[in-house]
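User: Could you write out the 3D structure of this protein bound to FE2/S2 (inorganic) cluster? I've included everything you need below.
Assistant: Certainly. Input first, then the structure.
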Amino acid sequence: MSQKTIPVQSAHDHSHEGERMCMSRRQFLLTGGAAVAVISLGSFPGMAEAAQALKAEYPRQKIGSLSALKTGVPVEFNFPYPDVRNILVKLGVPAGAGIGSDKDIVAFNQQCTHMGGPLDGTYKPQHQVLGPCPLHLTTFDLTRHGMVASGHATESLPQIMLEVQGDDIYAVGVMGLVYGYGAMTTKRSA
Ligand code: FES
């Protein structure tokens, strides 16, 4: 099945950001009906405002293995498209939507939701956060679905949804909108 990306702007062109976000969300909802679902995130008490989120499913992709992961050492991967950068990491503490026997393995996109700043290489294992963003210092809490811990961003970091099959770890979807992309939805193959 063909996939269509809608790259909207570079990290240096923010003149139409509000309009872009409105269109992106509208397109996301209108075009992703078959692939986007409202799901419950009841993993953490006290997160009523985050209890629902948009989830887009994609063809599953193997991104690592349980036996190879080391606590606090992130592994980079691209998903759902070759230019979308993410990390897979075993936090060492339970996390929202975490997988594995300790529920501590999660994956997140590495583009800041504020203005697309690169979060590559900013994981802090002692605090289980990604950041601070080099542009305006936002930091994201990876134990709580990528919620903003501090800084300018208002949207959580997109969380990559994971599944385990045997020792293999698969990316199967994205929860939230990746910065710079609009309706990047497609129906996951069975
Ligand atoms: S782009 Fe990351 S905080 Fe502004």
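Residues 112, 114-117, 133, 135-138, 151-153 surround FE2/S2 (inorganic) cluster (CB under 6 Å).
User: Perfect, thank you.
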